[in-house]
Amino acid sequence: MGQPITVVQKRTTRPGVVRFDLNRSLTGMGHERYRAGGEITGQRPPDEVARRLFAHGGVEAVHVYSNEVTVELSPGADAAGLREALEELFIHYTEGVSPSIP
To answer: Which listed CATH number (1.20.120.160, 3.30.1370.70, 3.40.1010.20, 3.40.50.720) goes with 7-87?
Structure first.
C-alpha cells in the first residue's frame, strides 16, 4: 500500500513559484536542487520527487529541503496536479495493481 503524504500547497511572494509543505522529511537537513533537462540519477525520495514533478510538465526547477518542496513553474504553467503527484509518492499499489506476494 504505502502511506499517503499530507501536502499543503502555499503561495510564495514570487510569481511562478509554488511551495509545498509535506508531513515528512525527504532530505533531512540537506538541500537538493534540480533543473529541467538535467539528469537525475539517484534513487532517493528527493530524486523521485523531482522526476515526478518534471514528468508532470510545466516545471523549470525543483528545490527540496527537509519537508519543503519549492517548484519554479515554466512561463504560463500552473501548479494543477503537482500536489497530487507529491501525495502519491509512497503509494505502491494503485488501482488495478496487486501485490506480487502470494
So the answer is: 3.30.1370.70
- CA–CA gap between residue 95 and residue 97 (Å, rounded): 6
Alpha-carbon gap, residue 40 to 62, rounded angstroms = 12
Give the per-residue pLDDT at 92.
52
Q: List, in order, residues 6 or more apart from 18 with CB less than 8 Å away.
A: 9, 10, 11, 12, 70, 71, 73, 79, 82
Residues 65-93 pLDDT 10s: 999 999 999 999 999 999 998 988 876 55
CA-nearest of 24, 30, 34 to 54 is 34
